[in-house]
Amino acid sequence: MVTLTIDGKEVTVPQGTTILEAARSVDIRIPTLCYHDRLNPIGSCRMCVVEIEGYTHPMAACTTPVDDGIEVVTKSDRLTRIRQDSLKLILVNHPLDCPVCDKGGECLLQDLTYEFGIDQVEYKAAKVERESQYATPLIRYWPDRCIMCLRCVTACQEIKGIGAISIQGDGYGAQVVAVDAEKCQSCGECLQVCPTGALTEDLSRYKGRTWLVDRVPTTCTYCGCGCQLELNVQNDRVIAVTTREGVGVNHGSLCVKGRFGYEFINSDERLTKPLIKKNGKFEEASWDEALDLVASKFSAIKEEHGPGALAGLTSARCTNEENYLFQKFMRAAVGTNNVDHCARL
Amino acid sequence: MAEILFSSWGGEVVDNRQKDGQDFEPVNTVDLPEYFRQDEAVKALMGWYGIVIRDPETDIVDLSRVYIQEVQNKSCGKCFLCRIGTRVMAETLTRICNGQGKSEDLEILKRLADSIRESSKCNIGQSGPLPILDALEHFAADFEAAISAQKSVAAGTYHSKLTAPCMDACPIHLDIPNYVECIKEGRFAESLDIIREKLPLPGVVGRVCVRPCEEHCRRMNLDAPISIKFLKRFVADYELSKGKEPEFAIEPSEKTGKVAIVGAGPSGATCAFHLAKMGHDVTVYERFDEPGGMSAMGIPDYRLPRPILREEVDRIERMGATFNYETTVGKDIKLSQLEADNDAVFIAIGAQMGTTMGVEGEEENYAGYISGVQYLLDINQGRDPYPEGKKVAVIGGGNVAIDCVRCSFRVGKDDVNLIYRRTKNEMPADDVEIHDAEEEKVNFHYLTHPVKILAENGKVVGLRCVKMELGEPDESGRRRPQPIEGSEFVIECDIVVPAIGQTMDLSLLEGREDVKTTRWKTIVVDEVTKQSDQPKIFSGGDCETGPGALITACAGGRTAAFNIDKLINGEPLDYTEDDYFDKFFSKVKVFDPAEDIGFLGGRERKELEMLDPDTRKFTNAEVEQGFSINDAMAEADRCLRCYRVATVRV
To answer: Using CA atoms, how far apart are residues B40 and B477, in angstroms rounded to an integer?
Structure first.
């Protein structure tokens, strides 16, 4: 264990802990922008710089491990100047299109700009036109909004192990591009971690403001993994799927289906009532009618050919409990062991 | 040396601007060369450590503009302040130089320079704005004048370069911070690509390099250098473990030709790699039946397993180079023949002969007297050099001597002695090697010098030695050992192995007196282009430099390849800007071991797992076990990424 002080407060943490983690453990807030709990520290934003007594150079709290006896200062005029300059430099050419940005209202850059009271930027640099080189039909990239915090690049590499995107070019002209576009699975990990509106979900664009939606926690139905997600609901329509960091087995990750495959919910083509084919045509029926019909047909088959003539196949999209009940039904009610599950195939 | 008008290099300000020439204070922190190249006098330098101005006509505002623009160009874009901040600074200075400066510009420059310097992620941003701050402080009047004049400043001529202490120290100038960063980010294949832009033997160099880079690693000023060598090995091993065949893009030169390479060692192989990449028809002639030259025949398997070496050279063969093994140039085929049949010949035959000690009994050809080179060659070819002998005395203090003693255990010798005339402190062998040999229980006899080889019936039976003491320092700065009278004693042994140095067997040059050689039997070539007096003959590696580091041999092979390409394309073999910067940085040091970095250090260097000394000494299994993925990434994360920019006004 290592003992240090942060803003005069004594903290004892295990060796290898970063200054940022140590500060958080005692509820001292150090502002961060590129830092993300699920990623190795990136260190691109420099918002978390702190001063360490006896060392001339400020250091990033997210990447610096603690050391015994150090005295860390997280707030000073110098640090505020650096943090403000870091934000001001981003704002040199960041578009102020917050009113039409999907991220408006839950944007980290917005929050920090507000927190540090930046109402004007005295720095100027000509704008470099960046091309949108990274996009899929589901993910939209807004190069002008990108602050190049590299969360997306890091998440693609570290969480998904794909490495489809990377930084290309030097200096001011550097930008995030799809270096290996074919590898991209449109899983949306990148937009999940994006702190600004640089990466957005293209299906939900202009459908609803973030502060107006209800977020309904639920379990993804696409497979048996049980990923936790939140349906973003506005006016009884699902307009997006988001996740919460650290929740469920998926810790905030989803696959392309879980994140983007929600449009069927409100689809006009979706069946909402049972149909029974009469005279070669499907006709709407009540649930009782439909279930009675199925029960009678099953019973007839069982009577005539024995229970072995029936078999049941369930879906991986059902829950464990539903699958359990189904095999119970097949075995106890129908009387057959002919039961299987598509995930086994 | 022409006097310096102003210097803030290394934080020490010397201001001679208001003084007469004879009252000029000297500058101790930097040795600014007078010329960048023959016709270009160095007027000023702006770089990571400050400003040095020699010519009073230097326009500091224009110099600042060019320098910070270069910093911006080289900024990697991975942290906000450096990426955007240096751009704002560059545009502001450009505006001032164009006569459109505003009064508030200087305040903005200063504030930004402070913020960028204090908080950037790597040394480009940390060091980049430093000389601008110096300029604003000491040349404020020049900036104010440029702003108030509102007219364009005359643009000068400049040379700029990005470097880093490790990169500069590496003979082949591998882009170390870049490939280390890729490892940190888990991009192992990219890391390897960066290494292979220059070096085709990462697995070999990653095992046996003498690592000048680590001696110039700035992290050393905080705690311990980055384990650069083993990180290189890690990415090479990782690729091999995945069974992935690297792809080398062949980009043919405008004109391609035929090149013969003599020797398939590191220098020849590297030369073949680059020539093959440029589409030339390359044939390598090698006297042994396998590649590697002295690195295969001289370096034991427990340090460099041969399959690694073979695989890396075989890949060069698969790129299209032809390797003719068991072909000795000078015997099987004449050099003149190669010269006639090819557009160029690259001689890289290494230093393959042991030198003698000059002690009594050496000329007698006693059984059991074996040169270090021969001793290792035998063992590496699977033979016991002298099965009858069990007690070995190796003389020397270099890596070859250590290889000889450690190999001895591995062929069943049980009493192994190393005799060195100075102390452990002066020993030129790698500290790690010395430590490993100690662990394996070699008997070290320091301050001991052989005087006579004792023999009976033509067989070695012992070595008479004398005790030494250290006297005054000699020209190498090491204290000269002197014998202590009457201290003679005998080490009982039946094998005596002198491993005190190597020399070249230049018999392939017989009848070719027109190829100039030195009295140390090295081939004389232009130090940069590697071309000899005979335009078609180039040389590199040990036979050009004398016995040296493997990576230096590779570097020689690489530069020779590019110059051979120029020759084939009928271009003049001019030095490049990079070549001139190499000379420039040999004076203006890129690494300052005394620099106070001002960071919190204390992050432990990851060490490799080693086989147990009591068992490993009886096998040829590789002693050092490579990094795990986690250790490699953690080690790479210690890199400070010490890129820095220098701009020279000529």
So the answer is: 35
How far apart, in whole angstroms, are the C-alpha atoms of residue B634 and residue B186?
10
B113 interface with A at CB cutoff 8 Å: no
Q: What is the DSSP letter of B333?
A: B
Match domain A2-75 to its CATH number in 3.40.1010.10, 3.30.360.10, 3.10.20.740, 1.20.1290.10.
3.10.20.740
- Give the residue on B whose Cα is nearest the Cα of A55: B598
Say if residue B331 is exposed, middle or buried (CB neighbours under 10 Å; 0-12, 13-18, 19+).
exposed
- Domains in chain B with CATH codes: 6-160 (1.20.1440.230), 175-247+628-636 (no CATH), 258-351+506-574 (3.50.50.60), 354-503 (3.50.50.60)
Distance of residue B115 Cα from the nearest chain A Cα, in angstroms: 5
Range list for CATH 3.10.20.740 in chain A: 2-75
Optimal mutation site among B69, B74, B80, interface A, most CBs of chain A within 10 A: B80
Separation of alpha carbons A174 and A185, rounded Å: 24
Q: Say which of A56, A125, A170 has its CB closest to residue B76.
A: A170
Q: How many degrees, rounded to 5, is the angle at CA A137 between CA A136 and CA A143?
A: 50
Tokens of B71: 């910093």
Structure confidence at residue B633 as a pLDDT band (50, 70, 90): very high
Q: Which residues pair with B323 in a beta bridge?
A: B284
Residues B169, B164: Cα–Cα separation, whole Å: 8
Q: Does B598 touch chain A (CB under 8 A)?
A: yes
Q: How deeply is B580 buried, as exposed, middle or buried, from its count of CB atoms within 10 A (0-12, 13-18, 19+)?
A: buried
Residues 6+ apart with CB under 8 A from B87: A125, A171, A172, B72
Suggest the residue from B72, B88, B102 to mutate for an interface test with chain A (most A CBs closer than 10 A): B88
A147 neighbourhood in chain B, CB within 8 Å: 80
Best of A40, A74, A85 to substitute, by most chain B Cβ atoms within 10 angstroms, is A85
CB-CB contact of B561 with B271 (8 Å): yes
Give per-residue pLDDT as tens, B348-365: 999 988 888 889 998 888
**Residue pLDDT, tens place only, B2-59:** 689 999 999 999 999 998 878 899 999 999 999 999 999 999 999 999 999 999 999 9
ipTM metric:
0.85
Query: Which element (helix H / strand E) includes A81?
Result: helix A77-91
CA distance A4 to chain B (A): 13
pLDDT along chain A (345 residues), means of 10: 96 95 97 95 95 95 95 97 96 92 93 95 89 80 92 93 88 86 91 94 86 93 87 93 91 93 90 93 95 95 96 85 93 94 70
SS3 A290: helix
